[in-house]
């Protein structure tokens, strides 16, 4: 009776060879994929924050332009009276 052929049952890890390099590569690929997904998620949040900042800057610039236009109009009206 040879050793492997006659055995039935038990863990396959006891009888099959374990390829360490393939397991390392597979693990590295999974870790890299998870990191990439998290990086994309963080970049998406940064883009959203930048859009909000841009809207606030445009609102501030528009408000300042409106304020200056009102000041010019008010000075023009008080100067003509």
UniProtKB/TrEMBL annotation:
UniProt keyword list: Membrane, Transmembrane, Transmembrane helix
Residue intervals passing through the bilayer: 57-77
UniProt keyword Membrane, yes or no: yes
Stated name of the protein: Uncharacterized protein
Organism: Halovulum dunhuangense
């Amino acid at each position: 009776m040879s050793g492997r052929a006659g055995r039935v049952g038990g863990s396959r890890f006891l009888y099959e060879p374990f390829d360490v390099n393939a397991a390392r590569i597979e693990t590295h690929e999974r870790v890299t994929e998870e990191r990439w997904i998290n990086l994309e998620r963080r970049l998406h949040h940064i883009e959203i924050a930048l859009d909000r900042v841009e809207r606030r800057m445009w609102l501030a610039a528009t408000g300042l332009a409106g304020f200056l236009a009102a000041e010019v109009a008010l000075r023009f009206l008080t100067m003509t009276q």
